[in-house]
Design a protein that fits this description.
Layout (H helix, E strand, L loop, with lengths): L4 H19 L3 H7 L4 H9 L18 H11 L4 H11 L4 H6 L2 H13 L4 E4 L15 E5 L2 E12 L6 E7 L10 E7 L5 E3 L13 E12 L13 H37 L1 E2 L2 E2 L4 H29 L5 H26 L9 H8 L10 H17 L1
Parallel strand pairs: 1-4
Antiparallel strand pairs: 2-3, 3-7, 4-5, 6-7, 8-9
Helix pairs in contact: 1-4, 4-8, 4-9, 8-9, 8-10, 9-10, 10-11, 10-12
This protein binds coenzyme a persulfide.
Length: 386
């Protein structure tokens, strides 16, 4: 749902100009330094980019899902690392509070997340817990009006900058699966929390991930998302947060694909072989056209799913369809963009080499392609059985 097209267009213009004038020129620097410069983070804060999806009553822009994916298309036109620094406040780091938090929890965290004053981070994955998210091992044992948390969380995006973690921990060891998991808001400066060394990744330099280790961390019971009577509800919160996150990531994939197509087309029109621009060779044209058609298909399905989500409908199937298609699609587009560049595509001076590595993550995080297939197929079977 687009509430006011003119207001949205203004926002999209601002974001698109920011991407072109400030972010794209700094891509290489971010890749080399593996961090987003502070002045750029400050500009993102001023533009309100940390609070895109946070409701207006808590200081955010309160974008609908359709509006949000339109912004994500624009942000996708530059290195995913830029989106990542604001991504958790708009997605997995704030949505648990927005969807299931108490009013007090919303008041405590959301206004400061919306301005970017604090960063929220999502701590689900563990050394032995990845796709099987319901098997969380980190424990939260009740002790008076607190829980005592122990465990290690892995590959936690923005952990080095985080002020608060949405933590998934097992409160009931008797229940082995999803039903024993609860969600907590844990302040990052709580005694007993330490960070591992920064992960060295294949791509997306500038986006920071590391382990977060919890050793006898005392968390007030009132910090359970939704309040102390919500034991065992954490997994469902995580799944709802991921449904939304998967749609957002799909939109970013579409934006990146569009950027790669621009890069490949520009190169193909300039580069001459056999006496003419390679864009005039039909085998190059086939790669350009396939990429264009697939990016267009991705854009269309993301918009359709976002509109459905805005009606209040359950879009778990659609979100997983989008994530499955768009993450794979941008992988193919990146591969063709490198191929169109030929030898130049393998050289780091050209952005396609960096994007080729960056996009590999889309098929893995917020649920692998295989997990999306499982979600879609399970939902199909469930719906057909009802
Ligand atoms: N929204 C709301 N509730 C949901 C839900 C959703 N999208 N998906 C599942 N649930 C509920 C189920 O209805 C079920 O509730 P009941 O026990 O009341 O019936 C409960 O959650 C458990 O669901 P399920 O049995 O399907 O859980 P599984 O352990 O089989 O796990 C998958 C399901 C595999 C889909 C899940 O573990 C998953 O998404 N894994 C990937 C995790 C991931 O994306 N990690 C990335 C890192 S985090 S950035």
């Amino acid at each position: 749902m687009i509430r006011d097209q003119e207001t949205l267009n203004q926002l999209l213009d601002i974001v698109s100009r920011f991407v072109r004038e400030r972010l794209i020129p700094n891509e290489q620097r971010v890749a080399e330094e593996d961090r987003i410069p502070d002045d750029i983070v400050d500009e993102m804060k001023e533009l309100g980019l940390f609070g895109l999806s946070i409701p207006e009553e808590y200081g955010g822009l309160g974008l609908t899902m359709e509006e949000e994916v339109n912004v994500a298309f624009e942000l996708g036109h530059t290195s995913p690392a830029f989106r990542s620094i604001m991504g958790t406040n708009n997605g997995i780091g704030s949505q648990g509070i927005i969807m299931d938090g108490t009013e007090e929890q919303k008041q405590r965290y959301l206004p400061r997340m919306a301005t970017g004053e604090i960063i929220g981070s999502f701590a689900l994955t563990e050394p032995d817990v990845g796709s099987d998210a319901g098997s969380v091992k980190a424990s939260a044992v009740r002790d008076g009006d607190h829980y005592v948390v122990n465990g290690t969380k892995r590959y936690i995006t923005n952990a080095p900058r985080a002020s608060v973690f949405t933590l998934m921990a097992r409160t009931n060891p008797e229940v082995k699966g999803a039903g024993g998991v609860s969600a907590f808001l844990v302040d990052a400066d709580s005694p007993g929390i330490t960070l591992g060394k920064p992960d060295k990744k294949m791509g997306q330099s500038g986006s920071q991930t590391c382990d977060v280790i919890f050793e006898d961390v005392r968390v007030p019971a009132e910090n359970m998302i939704g309040g102390p009577d919500k034991e065992g509800q954490g997994f469902k919160t995580a799944m709802k947060v991921l449904d939304r996150g998967r749609l957002h990531i799909s939109a970013v994939c579409v934006g990146v694909a569009e950027r790669l197509i621009e890069e490949a087309l520009r190169f193909a029109m300039e580069r001459k072989q056999f006496g003419k621009p390679i864009a005039e060779h039909q085998l190059i044209q086939a790669m350009l056209a396939d990429s264009k058609a697939e990016a267009y298909a991705g854009r269309s399905m993301v918009l359709e799913a976002a509109r459905k989500m805005d009606t209040g409908a359950q879009v778990s199937t659609e979100a997983s369809c989008c994530k499955l298609y768009c993450a794979e699609m941008v992988g193919r587009v990146a591969d063709r963009a490198v191929q169109i560049h030929g030898g130049a595509g393998y050289i780091s001076e050209y952005p396609v080499e960096r994007f080729y590595r960056d996009v590999r993550l889309f098929r893995i995080y917020e649920g692998t392609t295989q997990i999306q297939q499982i979600v879609v197929a399970r939902n199909m079977i469930r719906d057909a059985s009802n």
